[in-house]
Structure to design on (262 residues):
């Protein structure tokens, strides 16, 4: 079974959702790479027009630029989308907004139409572990600014519970490395500091280190997500709860199955 081909099939199926005029988040990793290349080909062939990509890593930025995809940074996107609109001051304090108003405001700020990205593991509830490629911080920022997050995987990435097949990448400040190793181990994780190709510590695009934390099967991803979010030295982690996910495109020898969050 050619898993690389399966990844390509899933990625190219997801690209069918990209339409003219869209702002598209471009994921990082071996599977998302196929989507970026397919988008570039469709632009070159005239099948997609007025597309702008928002890369989730420097590596993806280089790939997309090399294939001719017009690019924007997230900051540039917000400036372009807001410069023609008058900024209005709310007549109420933010804390007085009800849940519906806050939801509408959050949706209005999701300026990326679609992001296509991969995942290292997807559980039965469509929670994800991401960050095997080291871009988890930017990937989560892009996901949180996206109307629809499409995840592309082959069937080997599916599991009953997160942690069965993959560790949780945890991006930490260099200053706090030993402290965060101690914290993660206090939660029951077996930890390894990620190394780069040169044998030294892997450094993310934002200048941080990554601790790969193996928790085994994670019984409550939301609880672990909260614990990690509360820790000051942790910049970001690779648990992506299903509320961020619109659909998972999973390929096998039988074709591509689209799994949606209910």
């Amino acid at each position: 079974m050619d898993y690389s081909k399966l990844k390509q099939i899933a990625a190219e199926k997801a690209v069918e959702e990209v339409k003219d005029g869209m702002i598209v988040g471009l994921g990082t990793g071996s599977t998302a790479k196929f989507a970026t290349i397919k988008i570039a080909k469709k632009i070159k062939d005239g099948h997609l027009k007025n597309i702008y990509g928002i890369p989730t890593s420097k590596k993806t930025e280089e790939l997309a630029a090399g294939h001719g995809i017009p690019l924007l940074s997230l900051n540039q996107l917000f400036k372009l989308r807001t410069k023609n609109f008058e900024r209005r001051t709310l007549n109420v304090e933010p804390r007085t907004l009800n849940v519906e108003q806050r939801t509408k405001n959050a949706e209005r700020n999701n300026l990326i139409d679609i992001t296509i990205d991969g995942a290292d593991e997807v559980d039965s509830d469509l929670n994800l572990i991401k960050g095997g490629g080291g871009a988890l911080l930017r990937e989560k920022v892009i996901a949180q600014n996206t109307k629809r997050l499409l995840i592309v995987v082959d069937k080997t990435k599916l599991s009953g519970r997160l942690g069965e097949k993959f560790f949780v990448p945890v991006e930490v400040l260099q200053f706090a490395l030993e402290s965060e190793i101690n914290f993660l181990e206090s939660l029951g994780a077996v930890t390894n500091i990620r190394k780069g190709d040169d044998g030294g510590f892997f450094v993310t695009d934002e200048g941080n280190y990554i601790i790969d934390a193996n928790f085994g099967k994670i019984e409550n991803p939301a609880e672990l997500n909260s614990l990690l979010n509360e820790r000051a030295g942790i910049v970001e982690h690779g648990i992506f709860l299903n509320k961020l996910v619109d659909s998972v495109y999973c390929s096998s020898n039988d074709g591509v199955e689209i799994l949606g969050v209910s």
About this structure: The chain has two domains: 3-156+242-260, 168-236. The first strand starts at residue 23 and ends at 26. Residues 168-236 form a domain with the Alpha-Beta Plaits fold (CATH 3.30.70.260). Helices lie at 3-15, 30-44, 58-66, 74-82, 99-108, 136-144, 177-186, 221-229.
